[in-house]
Amino acid sequence: MPTPAPPPSWWVHHDWKIYRFGDKEIGIGQTELTDIEKSMPPVEDLRCELRKAAGNSGLFMAVLMLTDILEERSLVLVHDDNGLDLAANAFKKSVNTAGMIELPGVMSRKKQVVPFLAAAFNSG
């Protein structure tokens, strides 16, 4: 019998870091895996867990990076539509039909995600 997939809380919180931009805090979780779309829980379940994380910690924004280590890309999911729009503008990417932002070549939260979000916060 196959091992059940971890619950959405595991995906969001197992590698979770809080960042401060001015007076706002955001949480960014990152999960590294292969074959993201086949491995991950439903997007709405992950988004619900991100909304809980944002509410419980008083965060301005909660983000999950799903990083495919073989394809060298990340999918970014944000807890609400305002945050998703901010992230889409930060990366100059559109939101896909699943409600995520695809970032080819992005593997590092610290070097490739945080600086773009920081710039978006500082310009807005």
Features:
single chain; five-stranded mixed sheet; 124 residues; alpha+beta; Diaminopimelate Epimerase, Chain A, domain 1; 5 strands
Report on this model:
With 124 residues, this protein is α+β, with helices and mostly antiparallel strands. It is built from 5 helices and 5 strands; from the N terminus they run H-E-E-H-H-E-E-H-E-H. The longest helix is centred in the middle third of the chain and has 15 residues, at 43-57. The chain is globular. The N and C termini lie far apart (50 Å). The model has no long low-confidence stretch (mean pLDDT 93).
Question: How would you briefly describe this protein structure?
Answer:
This protein is α+β, with helices and mostly antiparallel strands. It is 41% helix and 27% strand.
Share in β-strands? 25-35%
Helix count, DSSP H or I runs of 4 or more residues = 5
CATH topology: Diaminopimelate Epimerase, Chain A, domain 1
Q: Which CATH C-level class is it? A: Alpha Beta
What's the story with the biggest beta sheet?
A: 5 strands, mixed
CATH superfamily: DHHA2 domain
Written as H for each helix and E for each strand, in order along the chain, the element string is HEEHHEEHEH
Q: What is the residue-mean pLDDT, rounded to a whole number?
A: 93
Distance between the termini: 50 Å
Residue share in helix: 40-55%
Q: Which architecture does the CATH hierarchy give at level 2?
A: Roll
Give the neighbour order of strands across the main sheet: 1-2-3-4-5
- Computed structural class: alpha+beta
Overall domain count: 1
**How many β-strands, per DSSP?**
5
Principal-axes geometry comes out as: globular
The rounded Rg comes to 14 Å
